[in-house]
From TrEMBL:
CDD domains: PBP2_NrtA_CpmA_like (cd13553). It is found in: Cell inner membrane; Periplasm. The keyword Signal applies. This is ABC transporter substrate-binding protein. Transmembrane segments: none annotated. Belongs to the CmpA/NrtA family. Belongs to the bacterial solute-binding protein SsuA/TauA family. Keywords: Cell inner membrane, Cell membrane, Membrane, Signal, Transport.
Length: 375
């Protein structure tokens, strides 16, 4: 099995970042450019010209992160390969550092499907007029927190205004945690803008965020697991906001439940190779079943081995245990949350309003569930 690794691109700063954001396009502008380069993706309801056959190879993208545990399990245990082998399809994997990079790869035809955060998926769909991708299923829910210096957390609990002039990090501009942080700060009466605001927000690769926090260069970050746990347990940070507390269940059916990772596919690929997408979903469900029914110690061991192979170092047992305790793994895409997520991005000037009615295509998931008794 071939695996390609994409390191996170350096974040634009200073004049370069101002040029990138000229005209207020931000992430949306990048995704529009990427989508414009992919002119053969069928619009919703259109018919693909390619015959519906199994693909020779499925090119799958994901992150080396606990929130992408179904991908790590499916790859490590050969669950994707086993399902795809029946139709003569092999799987080639690509490891990305952030959602926008995976979206760009989908738009460019470099990969066929990807695990990514809901906000990049929504932005890609909206900016391409529905042509960029389809969400097939959920993968992970929960597992994101705003962690800051302990003294700052203590002060902010009684007066959130102490966050003015603080420097906080997120994994990437326009990503799921970036939008969540900007939304929360705005709700607290603190201005946030891609060019500045009361609080300085610095999109930073997760590993670098840990080092910057240790050195005192930043005051905290809104992060997915296991990075929130690493800052808490390895660098002395304190939790100021657990994102689970911001979801009352009205959109997702249960308090504290919110989408963190989804499985998306190129519409062009799905139309041309539905048998391959069916097999991918069966492998995805098999990975979820294993995660949800296997002893936690065995789950931790496998995931740590995969993270070590992909990211270069294992997690401390206390870190992986804390991180897994805040995550749940589900095939439910939790689509009721998407309008809220999009509106949050719109309010943060990182997206434009759009109709999301056709973003989720649950037909593949429905077929896969019928074919798996444990789904």
């Amino acid at each position: 099995m071939d695996t390609t690794r994409y390191t996170a691109a350096a974040q634009a700063t200073g004049p370069a970042r101002r040029a990138l954001l000229a005209g207020g396009t931000g992430l949306l502008g990048l995704l529009v450019l990427g989508a414009a380069a992919t002119t053969t993706v069928p619009r919703p309801g259109s018919t693909a010209t390619a015959p519906a056959t199994a693909a020779t190879t499925l090119r799958l993208g994901y992150f080396a992160n606990l929130t992408h545990a179904p991908a790590l399990v499916g790859q490590s245990k050969g669950l994707f390969a086993a399902e795809l082998a029946g139709s003569g399809t092999t799987v080639a994997t690509s490891i990305f550092g952030a959602g926008p990079a995976a979206v760009e790869a989908l738009n460019a035809g470099a990969i066929d499907a990807a695990y990514l955060g809901p906000n990049p998926a929504i932005a890609a769909y909206a900016s391409s007029g529905g042509r960029g991708l389809r969400v097939l299923a959920g993968a992970a829910a929960g597992g994101a927190q705003l962690v800051v210096r302990k003294e700052l957390a203590d002060a902010a609990r009684s007066d959130v205004g102490v966050l003015r002039s603080a420097t906080l990090a997120t994994p990437q501009l326009g990503g799921t945690q970036d939008v969540a942080l900007r939304t929360w700060l705005t709700a607290q009466g603190l201005s946030t803008d891609v060019r500045g605001g009361d609080v300085s927000i610095t999109p930073t690769a997760n590993a670098q965020t840990l080092e910057l926090f240790r050195s005192g260069a930043i005051d905290g970050a809104w992060l997915p697991e296991p990075w929130a746990s690493r800052l808490v347990l390895e660098a002395g940070a304190a939790v100021l906001v657990d994102e689970a507390e911001l979801w009352d269940g009205a959109e997702t059916g249960a308090p504290g439940l919110f989408p963190t990772t989804v499985l998306a596919v190129s519409p062009n690929f799905a139309a041309a190779h539905p048998l391959t997408v069916d097999a991918l979903l069966r492998g995805h469900l098999a990975a979820l079943h294993w995660l949800n029914t296997t002893d936690r110690r065995e789950v931790s061991t496998l995931l740590n081995a995969e993270l070590s192979a992909s990211a270069g170092a294992p997690l401390a047992p206390k870190v992986i245990n804390r991180a897994l305790s805040s995550l749940s793994f589900t095939a439910d895409p939790l689509a009721g949350a998407y309008p809220r997520l999009l509106q949050n991005a719109v309010d943060a000037s990182l997206a434009e309003s759009a109709n999301l009615d056709a973003l989720v295509d649950d037909s593949f998931l429905a077929r896969a569930r019928k074919e798996r008794a444990d789904a």
